[in-house]
Design brief:
homodimer, Aminopeptidase, Glucose Oxidase, domain 1, 11-stranded mixed β-sheet, 3-stranded mixed β-sheet, glycoprotein (chains A, B), secreted (chains A, B), endoplasmic reticulum (chains A, B), golgi apparatus (chains A, B), lysosome (chains A, B)
Chain lengths: ~475, ~475
């Protein structure tokens, strides 16, 4: 089928385009439209009103809560008012985790409260738990502890995430959050506390997903704010034995079916072929999910709406996806990919991109496509250049919810955002609308509109994601 | 007595000093010592260890709690280890206010939790209170509301504090906190909520003292974080009637006697005459009181300890005062002034200064002294100039705890700090050690050491505070 499609594309290229379009499959009119979209986005678009509305009228949107249902209904109605050709829901089912109560305090040597939050998925402490803490500088140091050495104790992983524009400090740090409970339990610990995976000294604890494995006891897991972790480290470095009280009430309560909310601008020539852009609709429960990821849904919806406002539809379909429950395991992205795989539609996916790294300006275009399609990416990059965006080859990767379909062979693009401040707010109560700069939002809408339009308009086939990126 | 003292000072000046000292009453040796103190402070001093110790080993120090008693004992022991000639306690009695529980949520039109904190001194809601809110742009707008117009409603004062280096945005804003409950109750309101008196968009609610008056019903008073206040304003501006649930449990529970903790370097010639420097030892309950005001106590104690480490005592006594319960009504400063007034010791107070504006660098020296003593202030300013400090005449005022003795006629000095960021952290859980820059702390210790040393060393009498400053 892909071969047939290529043949058809080649036929179109020969019959429709001037020779100058060359191997980008884009004619001057397509480029002119892209440039117009870019300027139109900078002059005003729907993103700010979208994210202001979503974060004000829904607020926190923890997957599986009644706010999840309200967010789905709100987004569907908003999409329907934005001029798309088609808006629909697709089911996404997952277990529901609820946070009820959380607190921590130093009991000795220096009694005082601590700022703590339960990690997503954690079990509770079953009433207040009192124990000594044992510090580990890293998850690896915890793994190296002797078996049983933490019996009756709380493991405390104290390494601090480093700040970078591209957020690359996250990867080395986040293992403590994901796997700390399992590794601590293997050594006999009764709970694990980590230094928040965050770059700010603001006294917020950062939540985020953690996991258990089948053969290891499930122990409660929480994160301390950076200042609170510092406080414990000072006590420990002074030679004190530190005893804490930890009280977490949280539970996983059955299954819930939410929805991916999808809006389309239907392609005029190849409506079955799609370019997807989107963000995730769910958020953690403590902030209002403005930068994670109201902004991503708003940016891509506004970009899609600009394309929908053109007189002519793009050659292929542009699909905006507000994914369900990214935070607790990429459920929306997985459901989307599985549904496409089941119907053999993965090869129809020309390019997928997700905005899920806050609301900082985009500085790079990256992609995982066939070598033959790279000239299209470069041509798109030329239209993005006035936005301060450079094209980078051989680096990057798809957004989290695009990952599952990329793993099945779909090509991807990435509009890399400046994430310098992202992990200051990420997964905290401080993720609120005021953290978004409206002008930065406009720049991102412009970039997504250009990318989605030109990717949908080119006659070139993007092929499949290079194996490396699909890993 | 003051006249006699002046005569004695004049005699000393004639007999001891070279003519060049002129009307500053300071000889070259005194200036050289001041310069040495300045450089010594910059090279290292006790302030960081002090504030790190206090905030780590005691943490929050709400007046009247057991942490207050621990803080007094800790500070007395620390002062005793710092080389002072005398360390002692003086009683300070005040009512105890305790915060037990606080939460708020929007019930309609868009249900979601809000970040709220009870104001210091507030009564509780006696269980969850549910009511509509009525927004007022300012306290004055609330005062102008018709009598009875808020019956059964919650008044919401939404004006935002402005950011300035000298913190002058605080005065115009803080009336909403101090008097909002009384004014709202006069109109029939069941509670008052204010936008936090704070300059940051971080999602912390700022607490702080409020007051009731005898003839007006006592209604609960709380502050919302800036992002939460924005959220309510957006709902109201969209035309919605906003209904909240507010649940505050707090109470005032009898009297407690804490202590001003005092350390002295005893004067070699006029030990009864004193120069006082200090900060306040209490803090609000949510942060660890690092910038408000662990820093102030640490800076002035470290400065005093540097003076105590000199081979020769200053002419007059240098007294470091860690005041009790500044936050809830300047109790420590008032008790100190009243005790001095009762024993006729106010005229012995040559100069009083308090560090209670965070831990930002000092940029100005100001004073309220007799005109005849201004040349001393100018000379002190010359020694401070290399620290980036300019001398300003006719502006400023004493620190809060110095105010009561200044009102009784004592002269004052002010080392004005850069407070640009102070109200980002002030009275929030985010007031923690990491907000202090060690090098800035050193600069302040240097300035206080120079000021206290030279004010204690000059033969000139500082007279009394000009009437304006004493108002």
């Amino acid at each position: 089928m892909r071969a047939l499609r290529r043949l058809f594309a080649a036929f179109l290229a020969l019959s429709t385009f001037p020779a100058s379009a060359g191997d980008t499959g884009l004619d001057a009119a397509a480029i002119a439209t892209a440039e117009r979209l870019r300027e139109q986005a900078l002059a005003g678009n729907a993103a700010w009103d979208f994210v202001a509305g979503l974060t004000t009228e829904i607020g926190p949107r923890l997957a599986g809560t009644e706010a999840d249902a309200r967010a789905v209904a709100w987004t569907k109605a908003r999409f329907e008012a934005m001029g798309f050709d088609r808006v629909y829901l697709e089911p996404v089912t997952f277990p529901v985790w609820l946070r009820h109560r959380e607190s921590a305090a130093v009991l000795a040597p220096f009694p005082q409260p601590l700022v703590v939050t339960a990690l997503g998925g954690s079990v509770g402490t079953d009433g207040p738990l009192e124990a000594e803490i044992v510090e580990f500088a890293t998850l690896d140091a915890l793994k190296a502890a002797p078996e049983g050495s933490l019996r009756g104790k709380i493991a405390f992983i104290s390494n601090r995430m480093q700040r970078f524009r591209d957020g690359r400090g996250y990867g080395p740090a986040v293992g403590a959050r994901s796997n700390g409970a399992v590794e601590a339990a293997r050594k006999g610990a009764v709970a694990v506390l980590i230094r928040s995976i965050g770059t700010s000294n603001d006294r917020f604890a950062h939540t985020g997903a953690m996991r258990y494995v089948a053969d290891v006891p499930r122990i409660p897991a929480g994160a301390l704010s950076n200042p609170d972790a510092d406080q414990l480290v000072r006590m420990i470095e002074a030679g004190h034995t530190v005893r804490l009280r930890l009280d977490i009430s949280a539970e996983t309560v059955g299954q819930y079916t939410s929805h991916n909310v999808i809006a389309e601008v239907t392609g005029r020539e190849l409506p079955q072929e799609v370019v997807t852009i989107g963000g995730h609709l769910d958020s953690w429960d403590q902030g209002t999910g403005a930068i994670d990821d109201g902004a991503g849904v708003a940016i891509t919806a506004a970009a899609g709406a600009l394309i929908a406002s053109l007189e002519q539809r793009p050659r292929r379909t542009v699909r905006v996806i507000a994914y369900a429950n990214e935070e607790q395991g990429l459920y929306g992205g997985k459901a989307y990919a599985e549904a496409r795989a089941a119907e053999g539609a993965v090869p129809l996916h020309q390019l997928g991109a997700e905005s899920d790294f806050g609301a900082g300006r985009i500085y790079a275009l990256r992609a995982g496509v066939d070598d033959a399609a790279w000239p299209v990416i470069e041509r798109i990059g030329q239209v993005l250049a006035p936005l301060g965006i450079t094209t980078e080859r051989g680096v990057g990767g798809p957004g989290p919810d695009v990952g599952p379909i990329v793993a099945k062979g779909a090509p991807w693009a990435q509009l890399a955002q400046d994430g310098t401040d992202y992990f200051d707010y990420h997964h905290t109560p401080n993720d609120t609308l005021d953290k978004i700069e409206p002008a930065a939002l406009d720049q991102q809408v412009a970039a997504y509109a250009v990318l989605a339009w030109l990717a949908a308009e080119t006659t070139v086939d993007f092929g499949s994601a290079p194996a490396k990126a699909a890993e």
